[in-house]
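Morning!

As promised:
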Amino acid sequence: MSNRRVKSLAIDEDDYDDFEDYDDDDDEDLSPEDKEQLRQGTIKVREALGSAFPSTDKEIHESLWHYYYDVGKTVTYLKSTASNTEAFIHLLTQSGQHKSPGTPAKTKKEEPTSKLSTSYCPTALPRTYQTDRGGHDGLQATISHKNADGDQEFTSSTIPSIQFSAAEFFKDCPWLRIPENRKAEILIEPLYPRLGLLGGASTGGKMSKLAALAAKRRQKEGERSESTATSSAESQDGYTARLNKLRISVDNRAKPVAGREADTPRKTGVGVRPDSEVTEQLNEQHRSEPSSDVGTVVSSDLSISVEPCIRGRPSPFASIMTSHDADIRLSASPDLLALGEIAKSFDFTEPSPDDVVRGAQNPKAATPAKAKAKEPAKAKSTGLAQGVQQLSVQETPKVKSKNIDVLAEYKKVKRKKAANFVVIGHVDAGKSTLMGRLLFDLKAVDERTMDKYRKEAERIGKGSFAFAWVLDQGTEERERGVTIDIATNKFETDKTNFTILDAPGHRDFVPNMIAGASQADFAVLVIDASTGNFESGLKGQTKEHALLVRSIGVQRIIVAVNKMDAVDWSQGRFEEISQQMSAFLTSAGFQSKNVTFVPCSGLEGGNILEKPSNPKASWYAGPTLVEELDQSEPSTYALDKPLRMTINDVFRGSMQNPLSVSGRIEAGNVQVGEHVVVMPSGERAQIRSLEVDDEPQDWAVAGQNVVINLTDIDPIHLKTGDVLCSGVSPILNVREFKAKVLAFDHITPMNIEVHKGRLHVPGRIGQLIGLLDKSTGTILKKKPKIVQPGSVVRVVVQLDQPVPLEAPSRVILRANGETVAAGLLE
Amino acid sequence: MRLIKRHLDDDGSGSVTLCPEEPEDMWHAYNLIRPRDLLTASAIRRVTTESSSTGSTASQRVHTNLTVRVKSVDFDPQAGQLHVSGQISRENRYTKIGQFHTLDLELQRNFTLEKQVEGSDGGEGWDSVARAQLEEAIDPARGTEAVAVVMQEGLANICFITQHMTVLRQRIDVSVPRKRTGAGRSTDHDKGLEKFFATVLDTLMRQLEGLMEGKDSSTNFPILLASPGFTASGFLKYINDTAASKGSKLLQDMAKRKAFVVVHSSSGHLHSLNEVLNSPEVLARLKDTKYARETALMDGFFAMLRKDDGRAWYGPKEVETAVEKGAVGRGGGVLLISHSLFRSQDIATRRRWVRLVDRVREVEGGEVRVLSSDHESGKRLEGLGGIAAILTFPIEEMDFDGEESDHPDNGSEAS
């Protein structure tokens, strides 16, 4: 029983509220006046019908109530019910149009009925139904359910005790020939006989509201599937899928009812729900299905209901009711865990039982559904199994891990190249403007937005900053015209998906630049070609940034010689800059084959996406900036190492995800449901969901930019610069480490800040262990008193607070706003 | 600290009675009180008496003056409290010799410190360094000279700068969301920053109120706001806005007086205070204070060191050798030494440094600067082993392989 309760938890509060609303319909709560009216009405109806008419008091009561004591209508209704199936359809229309006072839910449903009456007549039966057995089935069942529902309505509280073997019952059904392992899914035993819903009686009995509504909804579904889907085979799939959905929803909704000793009025309430709302909720519930085990069972159950069987066909509605019951029965199973295991053991890469059955039914429509959990968009269309699988993940209070073999999944998928690059350079070299231009040219920013920026920029007298505003989104950044923090933007070319990390050039924000560079595969160094500015840049951040990206481990650098328009696209100037820069970059440790020079103009847009239009630039025949970017080789990452991710940002993602962190995974892989440890706090958290490049995914690997939504952790424990790591082999906090560093400045024992990505902590160089030979690494001099710039030295760094660092990672040591050294942790 | 009575003999023994008036005085007392000294101060002690006839006990708390022979000194800079523990050395009504007691020195309560000259390995009494420290302690110019807020986005350190120490009063660490692309997302960042400013201002005001307690409102000290980028100026703007709209009287008063000074620093970590104190804005306001001088001194030393011409040396052994060779003498020789070295529990170690200081000052004729270990400059010096020297002539190579013991010892002792 506990099982049932657990499941009920997943149902939204709203659902309960809904049930409350429908309680108004409760027949049992009749007031004395109602009863009196009912009694008198019955007498009148009896008179009108004549004594020979085969209808019970109950039926009359029901219909009277239905028509709110309108004797005339009731009589017509009862007569028509008794006559034939057409009459039933007629009735449908009527019942739809009839207005029941007092219940808002009922008034809402009026609209769709007119449509119904036109489409739901036997002649206009959707073609798909006639070809599809399942659909045909559905039709008959709809007719039959009058009886079924009548019974249902009045007997559901008594639990039938008829027992029979499921295997025997279905023994001649083709889909029973499924492998042994999959058969385990079907745990539901007696379904139909329990409620006496079989038989497909077409005469006698009458139509309840519930039945009418169910039929109506079904019809609407059918209608919609017909209207949306073309005559292609897919429409059948769609129909069944929709039907499936419908069934789940009822199934889900029925659970709380079951929890409170199911009673009819509540079920009626289910049916009364306006259609649009139902669909909405359907989707919602589709997502919020609490765990995969329920879902799987439902899916297998579905296959049963779709199948024709010897004892007459159950209507879809009947199967709804029974599958719900099946679920209750299932929940009675004492062992929740075992159930979960069964569900988990199912290999979702295989076609689901559902698919097997459908395939057998209709070879045309059979599409082998591959469970690609990482492509949720596809999953929706490919069948319920995937949908269910997804459900189990998204909204549950405790997220279940799916134990995906991420590496295998990763290898399976062929994807587009992806590269991150950091844009660096001296302040006001035009980094942001160049990138803004690039994004604009590549249509990553639309014209309207751009116009808006232009206007706004001009209004505050900074017209030339319009392109930069694409990246400089902060209010302060715009006010001051300076990039402060890394801006991340995406664009794609034919070959590659790029992520721009636009770094600030100002010396105060070098820590931010370090954070950006540590996520980059290669760098674009932007240089201001205009006279004087290049020279001052070379002394300033052009130099520092280039050294930094190199020491962070970036190998390839594209030098964009910007503002060529300011020097009239002078070839001489370009070559002068190229020479000086390549000399410098080589000395900084870049291999000359990894350094390329591109002249361009961010403001004019020359040589970014297209060749410069300026005739003075005709001397240049090399590639444009974008072409040069496309040359990038994808980097490789340690996917199989334990997870490491430096947190770039902690923010409130949305209402659903109150705690999100973003960053680039440095090593290893991660998947939804996994437990991770946040260092240095050492707190555990669970991954609720994750997004790769703004797309929800089930897993991510090193090298990808992810947003991870966490749960089970207090935000206090999360800071930018913290490290997410795997719980199995977490990174350790250190207070002291040894590092081999290259000195950019004089090094003595001194106060420094240690930077690694977003992480930065104060500390001091405690000891200079020894001066090392650059090439061999042997100690030249022990305990030097002072280290000259350019030499390699092994130092001990003591930190003020313990932070997660491990060898071999690259660290940057800064003091007084200048980079003094960079090196490798040992 | 007020000097109540001084009685010092020529040989170095003697006693002084002092009255601490400010929390900073506790730091002076911390430097003055050494193990084996005799300290007399008022104390509250629980005395248990046993009735001789029945064996039943009764205990009571008594206020009494106790004299202890100091065993250890514990200083809490943030609370400004000094706990001195030792063995009672003078008997009185309630106590016996040899019982242990921890004296808590209190503001506005006199204490008497007596140092004795003992045998060859005993205490030196009032040596030159101790006398200098005493002079420094009773110097009336003092008090908090500045409040500094060293900050960056999401991090702020609020500290009080006094003549002799920098006390970190509060560290604020708030997570400010970064800017993200997407419409309206930059507001996250703005909101986060606003919240951060509000937290810092609240904390700052709380600290200032504590500081202003018992002082007249005319007390004037600058509040330095230091940060990289625009955080500090943004904070100042926030302060002015808040002062105008809903600020307390104190805040409005300070805003009116323009007590806030925005200074550039390269980071929000505490050791950037260094740059703050070196900035022209601050020097103009606070020149001739001890910490400004000390900071300048350390910068000078590092500049010398960079030249690597053999005239700047650091480390205990190196400096001792340099002094030995007479390099720290007249004409530019400067010995920089941290207070923390004199705080050594080991008398011999202290004596070693006192002798060195005496030698430089009296024999060599060099200049001696004792740097406060609780200032940023002192911390930088401590990084170098607590002692450094600028020489009058270059000494090229000094090899001390295997010598390793000195600075870790002293470093760890520094609070």
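The domain at 644-726 of chain A is CATH 2.40.30.10 (Elongation Factor Tu (Ef-tu); domain 3).

Hope this helps with the figure draft.
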